[in-house]
Amino acid sequence: MTTSTINLNTTAEDHHIARMAAVALGLTILESAIPSPLPGVKPGLANIVTLIVLARYGWRTAAWVSLLRVVAGSLLFGNFLSPGFFLSLSGAVLSLIVLAFARHLPVRWFGPVSQSIYAAFAHITGQMLVVYVWLIPHAGIAYLIPIFATAALVFGTVNGLIAARFMDNFKKPLDHGIHGRKAIQ
């Protein structure tokens, strides 16, 4: 009896993308446990990871992390190729397109918070387009836009602030103790 093994040649970048996607997926799982006042209104915690990856490793890596999270999350929750999957995918793709352009804006005025807000609005726009074109082709869904836009503004701002805080912490040297004093060398 012969056994064959498949050897995947992976790089350090592949492992890094997988780790970041796993963190984003963990936040997605955590988010699913948070009760939502309205269907479809979620904080988008995984977008914090996408923003950090975008800032530190570039758009390509952020796109991989975001899309892997969407696919893995849909497989984990059992909704792969369901309407929920396509809603999530459309939001993620439109957010990534907007982030591709937003990252070229002057850093002096546009940082993680504005990028997060743009991405949140793009995400809800992508989802509303799919809902209108595929699921509920009725003008009545326009009445939901103010609710979703408010949620995008609030959650986009909060997620951007959290991402900015993490990015600031990454920039600081790691030679401080628990209380912020210089460690004894």
Shape: globular
Number of strands: 0
Task: Give the structural class.
Answer: mainly alpha
Number of domains: 1
- Major sheet details: none
CATH architecture assignment name: Orthogonal Bundle
**Overall pLDDT metric:** 85
Flag low-confidence runs: 173-185
| CATH C-level name | Mainly Alpha
CATH topology: Arp2/3 complex 21 kDa subunit ARPC3
Radius of gyration, taken over Cα atoms and rounded to an integer in Å: 19 Å
Following the backbone from N to C, one meets helices and strands in this order, namely HHHHHH
Q: Could you explain the architecture of this structure?
A:
It is globular and about 60 Å long. It is mostly helical. The longest helix is centred in the last third of the chain and has 27 residues, at 145-171. The protein has 6 helices and no strands. It has helices at residues 12-32, 46-57, 59-77, 83-102, 112-135, 145-171. It has a single domain, classed as Arp2/3 complex 21 kDa subunit ARPC3, CATH 1.10.1760.20.
Entry keywords:
single chain; mainly alpha; 185 residues; globular; Arp2/3 complex 21 kDa subunit ARPC3; disordered C terminus
